[in-house]
Amino acid sequence: MKIAIHGVNGKMGQEIARAALLDSDCELSAVSVRDSHSWANRALNSICDIDSPLKTTSNLEILCQQSDVIIDFTRPDATLSLLPICQRYDRPMMIGTTGFNAETAAWIERAARHIPIVFAANTSLGVNVLMEVAKRVASVLPAEDWDVEIFESHHRRKVDAPSGTALKLGEQIALGREVNLAEHMVYPYENARKTGDIGFSVMRGGEISGEHTVYFINDHERLEFTHRAHDRSIFARGALIAAKWLQGKPAGLYSMADVLGFRQV
């Protein structure tokens, strides 16, 4: 299976390239770059100390022509520029980019009517297990008795807050409670919390790869579910699993829950 990476200049792009070059089930066939092609080739060759016949380009049409599936970990504007080209060439997409608002996320939903897309705020297998656990716990603990708080921490350079993963955790908890997250989300705190609120807390600092804890709290006890990422390689491996899973799938918008085969609550 030929894998292409959109935005190999970034740290996640390089992690995915490293994982793909070491994966015997796939071929890293092309990557896109923002600036220096020679820089990208040197960086990729140094990843596994091999000389790869890799197509490095800033032309997104060439990127699609060279691949069976595209992995995208960039920024929303870069992702949206790639969507119509993937539709034109009928190329599946694994999108791990975060920071979309409701309007831009709708572009992805419309594109998924024509091509298969895995859209995941976090491709770590462990985080996606946490999401499923949080949803199921939320479905059985009554909201009138249990407060929910989602705490996340990331490196100092992260732009969006709360993180896309934290927001997805909130969506899963809201799904378990059969409510709309937008109507119950609290961030930042400006007043005392109300019954049914889903609160978010954020920390930024150092080189933290990503930590997420979901708290279920009542007056007498507390449940805590935590995932800690020790390095970015976990996201790269999950992204490759999702990309390979897309092969042969019909058009549609999929999540890592689909990739992992979780049943609905």
UniProtKB/TrEMBL annotation:
SUPFAM superfamilies: Glyceraldehyde-3-phosphate dehydrogenase-like, C-terminal domain (SSF55347), NAD(P)-binding Rossmann-fold domains (SSF51735)
Classification via PROSITE patterns: DAPB (PS01298)
MF term (GO), any: NADP binding
Residue stretches making up the Dihydrodipicolinate reductase C-terminal domain: 126-260
The protein's Enzyme Commission number: 1.17.1.8
Subcellular localization(s) per the UniProt record: Cytoplasm
Class of enzymatic activity (EC top level): oxidoreductase
Domain Dihydrodipicolinate reductase N-terminal: 1-122
A GO biological-process term: lysine biosynthetic process via diaminopimelate
Record-listed (S)-2,3,4,5-tetrahydrodipicolinate binding positions: H155, G164, T165
Binding site for NAD(+): G7, V8, N9, G10, K11, M12, G96, T97, T98, A120, A121, N122, T123
Residues at the active site: H154 (proton donor/acceptor), K158 (proton donor)
Catalysed reactions, semicolon-separated: (S)-2,3,4,5-tetrahydrodipicolinate + NAD(+) + H2O = (2S,4S)-4-hydroxy-2,3,4,5-tetrahydrodipicolinate + NADH + H(+); (S)-2,3,4,5-tetrahydrodipicolinate + NADP(+) + H2O = (2S,4S)-4-hydroxy-2,3,4,5-tetrahydrodipicolinate + NADPH + H(+)
Record keywords, A-Z: Amino-acid biosynthesis, Cytoplasm, Diaminopimelate biosynthesis, Lysine biosynthesis, NAD, NADP, Oxidoreductase
InterPro entries: DapB_C, DapB_N, DapB_N_CS, DHDPR_bac, NAD(P)-bd_dom_sf
A single cellular component GO annotation: cytoplasm
Major localization listed first in the record, in broad terms: cytoplasm
Known role: Catalyzes the conversion of 4-hydroxy-tetrahydrodipicolinate (HTPA) to tetrahydrodipicolinate.
Subunit structure: Homotetramer.
HAMAP family on file: DapB
Family: Belongs to the DapB family.
Listed name of the protein: 4-hydroxy-tetrahydrodipicolinate reductase
Gene field: dapB
